[in-house]
Write a structure and sequence with these properties.
Layout: E1 3-5, E2 11-16, H1 30-49, E3 52-63, E4 71-82, E5 86-97, E6 103-116, E7 127-129, H2 133-140, H3 142-160
């Protein structure tokens, strides 16, 4: 089986928080941060497998601290674990107060991507090899998160069976 060190999937994105990026609380819109997260995570997944990828799920986004206009926001992402054609990607969001230099973990997120071939069919991905302590810890705990994803997905499919597709005006 093909293997690839996790470090080869690592990506970084740093952005400034502009007035048009904030909500009525004068903090970064959650949706704006989620778009940044999906974007950088997809790049990490593509770098790992060198294929087109599709977001299979956003497993979690935990907002830990508000991000203010005086902050920069830096996202770090990397593949933590691989299945046959799927990849779990972790995104760490670090804020830095541009005046004081104080840094905080503002958010964390796990997403799952599937690698696709030229016909848009799932394709096998290289096994992710952790090297740093952080990579090893995330890799060791990934199987539990994968089991939770499977269970949640099954529940979501059952739940969807109870939902209607008609609109109130129909």
């Amino acid at each position: 089986m093909e293997q690839s060190p996790i470090k080869l999937s690592r990506c970084y994105k740093t952005a400034r928080v502009f007035p048009t990026d904030v909500n009525n609380h004068n903090t970064l819109f959650g949706g704006k941060l989620m778009a940044y997260i999906d974007d950088i995570a997809s790049i990490s997944a593509s770098k790992h497998c060198r294929r087109s990828v599709v977001t299979a799920s956003t497993d979690s986004v935990d907002f830990l601290f508000p991000i203010r206009p005086t902050d920069s926001v830096c996202l770090e992402s990397f593949v933590t674990w691989t299945g046959k054609s799927s990849m779990e990607v972790f995104v760490k969001v670090i804020t830095e107060d541009l005046k004081t230099g104080e840094r905080k973990i503002a958010a964390t997120s796990f997403l799952t991507f599937v690698a696709l071939d030229e016909n848009k069919k799932p394709v096998t991905v290289p096994h992710a090899i952790p090297e740093t302590e952080e990579e090893k810890r995330l890799n060791e705990t990934a199987l539990h998160r994968a089991e939770m994803r499977r269970s949640r997905r099954e529940g979501s499919k059952k739940f969807a069976d109870y939902l209607t597709t008609t609109f109130p005006w129909e």
